[in-house]
Structure formats: structure tokens, C-alpha cells
């Protein structure tokens, strides 16, 4: 029997960021046809009073956009994703954070079309080889930097020690291929299998994204493929991710859904971009 391809688009809204980010996302949502039927679920996080979401709902009403919503007082992004996913009736979910901006037409179809292959586990808009552990050594020279003074060097070597004895247990060294946890699509049922692991701190969120027990490694351990899709609908396996030109390389010209980190790169100087590319992909 053919698998039903019902989709919930889950967009996370962190209230303290303000309504302008939300409006930017909705404008991109309206400006780029999804290319596939779906349900839009808005997930409000950081809600303290009923009035906190009023302007958001008014904006949706002004454009007559069909949607449902849930509200949470607090929680890490991934915690909210899991809770929202539990409430979705769809076979598939795509998860978008507060900074997401859609950049290509038929964007949703480009994600869901990949799942006609049952060997596909997860499809994302961006990926990296960066390692939370290795980045410590990539960013800082290991020699004593006399010009920076004792306190700076003391803190640096303290960080090295912490990375060596603790972080390397939790994170693979570079290269550490992983999808980034924004704008990624999964089968809802398989995603909820990972809820057994609490993601209630920022550090645990880093582990979920690029740790040894990451989202990516969860699907790879199942023998399933992990892909990046670009704005043309072309897909890339882990060995090809840099050539997708979607994250921290070239002009990110093939990016399908942007976020704060892709914007950070876009706004960086040439020197800064070179360093970011080195962190994400190694020697350039």
C-alpha cells in the first residue's frame, strides 16, 4: 500500500525575539509556493500572557492563512518540536526555527519528493562537518600566546582540558558530518523515537545536532540515508555536502531555507567567511 504523505509544517516562534522575525517567515511562506498540501502548525514558546501572541494571530488573520497553534511557557527548541510533533496527525513533519526564511518555490515538494525512496531517513536544508569538540582546537592556537596575558591563556588551556577529557566523549572529532537542526523533514513516527533522550539544555541541543548520538547518526544507525536538498531539488549525500553550496561556503547560492547562521555567513567579511568555511568543511 502506498504510504500516505500528509505533512505538518512546524514553525517555532520564540516570543522574546519579537514579531518581526515571524512576519519575515510568513512573508517568505506566502511568497514561495509550497508545492504540496500540508498543515501549518505554529509553536509559540516563551508565552507568559494570552496577549503575547495576539499580534501574531492578527497577522495570520490579515492574510487569511489556515493554521493551528500550540503554546508553551518555556523549553528548548527541540523539546517544543517533540511536543508539537506528538500533536500532529501527519505522517511527515518538517521543522523550522524562528529564524527560518524560505528561499525557493515548491520548497516543500522538494523535501517530500525524496521520501518516495523508503531508504531515506531525514532530509535537511543545511549540513556541516563541524565538531563541537574539534572547534576548540581549530579556533585557538595551542601555543602560549604571551601577548594576550596570563588570564586569557589560563582560560584557553582550561577549555582545552575540558574538551579533551569531556567533550571528545560526547562529540566525534572533525570531520563530523551532521545535518543542522533547522529546516529538516522526517517521518513523524521515527522522530518521536528520539524523544526518549531529554533535550532540556542548550548543551544537550548541541549534542542532538552534532554529538555522537545526533539526529544524523540516529538515522545512519538505522541504515537510512541522510540528505541535503538544495533550492533546485537536487540532493546530496554526506560526502557531497560541501558541494551543495548551502552552508558556509561560496555564496550559499543553492540554499533553500536560510536561518541566523547562514545570514551570519552572508554578512561576514571575506576573512571571516574563510574562517567559517574552514570550521565547517576543513582546509579550503
Distance between the termini: 47 Å
Structural class determined from secondary elements: alpha/beta
Radius of gyration: 20 Å
Secondary structure tally, helices:
11
Provide the helix percentage. 25-40%
Mean pLDDT: 91
For the largest beta-sheet, the strand count, sense and barrel status come to: 8 strands, mixed
Spatial order of strands in the largest sheet: 3-2-1-4-9-6-10-11
Number of strands: 12
Low-confidence stretches: none
Strand content of the residues, in percent?
A: 15-25%
List strands and helices in order, with pairings:
Layout lengths: L6 E8 L4 H13 L7 E7 L8 H9 L5 E5 L4 H10 L5 E5 L4 E2 L4 H6 L7 E5 L2 E2 L5 H6 L9 H22 L7 E2 L4 E4 H6 L8 H9 L4 H7 L3 E5 L5 E2 L20 E2 L1 H7 L3 H12 L3
Parallel strand pairs: 1-2, 1-4, 2-3, 6-10
Antiparallel strand pairs: 4-9, 5-12, 6-9, 7-8, 10-11
Helix pairs in contact: 1-2
Notes on the protein architecture:
With 284 residues, the chain is of the alpha/beta class. It has helices at 19-31, 54-62, 77-86, 107-112, 134-139, 149-170, 188-193, 202-210, 215-221, 260-266, 270-281, and strands at 7-14, 39-45, 68-72, 92-96, 101-102, 120-124, 127-128, 178-179, 184-187, 225-229, 235-236, 257-258. The chain has eleven helices and twelve strands. The strands form three sheets. The chain has an eight-stranded mixed beta sheet. A two-stranded antiparallel ribbon has the order 5-12. The protein has a two-stranded antiparallel sheet with strand order 7-8. The N and C termini lie far apart (47 Å). The relative contact order is 0.15.
